[in-house]
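Q&A log
Question type: sequence-to-structure
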Amino acid sequence: MKIHPSMGTFLPKKTSLTTAPNPTEIITDEEDKIKDSDTILKESIQKQLSEIQEAKMQTGKGNSKAERIISKFNSGKKLSSEELSYLIKHAPASVDRILRISAEREQNEMMMRMSRTKVSTMQVPLLTIDGIRKSGGTAEEAQARANQLRDSVKEYQKTKEYQEKPATEFDYRKKKKTSSKNPPYQPSPLLWAAAHHAYQNGKKHKL
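Response status: OK
Response body:
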């Protein structure tokens, strides 16, 4: 006890007491932590679902028109520019694969056109199919490549160019000897007129 200077009375000495935690506040803090955990879990699940949905949209899954176009290509048929444009917009993840396989098809078609006999023409797809077998791509991609190759051969065999090719190298040489006896090439009147016009213009510039 101590004496107050003005009153001369004894006053109790002040003591510092530690306030006990409120049980209600503790419960509220724990509930907030549980809510935060639930929110984080829900946000994580929602993010994963959104990523899955976006991946489906990127590949065209769930889009009936995009799936139909991709199925058409996988079966070996060429796509129109409109169909490719649609995939670029609605299934962009599938476009790279389609362009690569389409470029391979065009290369095979060019090599078949350059071959001078039917036998050498058919060697082109045989070499390509062997490369497909040895490649490490997916089964779906390998099947699409094989179908595109098969369709390109089928379509080329329908052309007049292929049908007029000699069957073997022996036939080619025989045909070449025969064709050498044909009259020399005569340019068309239109080509001759264009060449004459260019020649006259050249003379004017020199003067």
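Response note: Residues 23-59 form the longest helix (37 residues).
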